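cache lookup: miss for this entity combination. No prior model stored, computing from scratch. Input as submitted by user K.M.:
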Amino acid sequence: MKVLVYSTRPSTRETFDSANQRHHHELVYTEARLAPDTAALAKGYPAVCLVGNDIADAPALDRLAGEGVQLIALRAAGFNNVDLPHAMDLGLKVVRVPAYSPHAVAEHAIALILTLNRKIHRAYARVREGNFSLEGLMGFDMDTKTVGIIGTGKIGAIAAGILKGFGCRIIVSDPYKNAEVAKFADYMTVPELLAEADIVSLHCPLTPESHHLIDAGTLADMKKGSMLINTSRGGLVDARACIESLKIGHLGSLGLDVYEEEEDLFFEDLSDQILQDDLFARLLTFPNVLITAHQAFFTKTAMDNIAETTLKNLDDAAGNSYPNAVGSESIRLKK
Ligand code: NAI
């Protein structure tokens, strides 16, 4: 199948070309991000391949459909960047990679926790400058802490298991119980979890119900000095409220791999530009805030799995089969 691959980076091309030796699709790469004004690039392509930062809103979808596109192959699990009801109205099929490496994301959440706890980000900079003082670097033993995991699906369950291995007490919240997790963790409501946890890690999807799950009110419900980790979706956390909580010393530390306004920042080298997002710039000033630019998924294992499943989705679509279609249940969630 002839496919235009939007938002291509060198690593995308390398991984997809390697996997495509087994699938033989005609992949054409563009660095352009999908938006209404770049949709015309897809003229003559029956399929486009997108990531989370491509904007597949109604105007972009209208233009894609007008250019003859019939299939959107997401090389991602999340699909909140696609206006699914509109895609359905246009008769566009949308397929995705439901799971590629839950371990990659869970392990990144643990990396953020350990780095913030032991202040590795600060120690790294200090030692390189010849400053061998330990002042301000004191951490805590993980096995003395209670960790709250919100969302015990694929990623949350693995994160919970790793943290159990550190000796932490694990408390969890999810409307659906995971029987494996329930063997070693206590299920409770989100307010109960926030009141008890020393570390809170978010692993639930972004839905209208979970938007700003962590806001001024829920931050106030968290224990003073606790740590918040978000590797899920930026919209789960009200960053402005976090700044206020950090300023008064209530929120103890914050680790983010995702940010609500990340579309204008992440995945680009902006190092020679003036940062325009004042909220993000303020977050960067805190010594107890650690931000990575949506890299939790970015392991060799995960990238290989993403390429393989995406190309398999294209194979299936060529045979009019869509086992990884984003279904009607998801559409209900998004509305
Ligand atoms: P999953 O679908 O396996 O699990 C999500 C769990 O969250 C489900 O058990 C669901 O019942 C639960 N949930 C839904 N709403 C909830 C709420 N309001 N409170 C508590 N639990 C709730 O999803 P998976 O694969 O574990 O992924 C979790 C999230 O990780 C994704 O939604 C995505 O946003 C994020 N992600 C981030 C990546 C990154 O690179 N930073 C990469 C891949 C996923």
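stored under new cache key. DSSP finds 13 helices and twelve strands in the chain.
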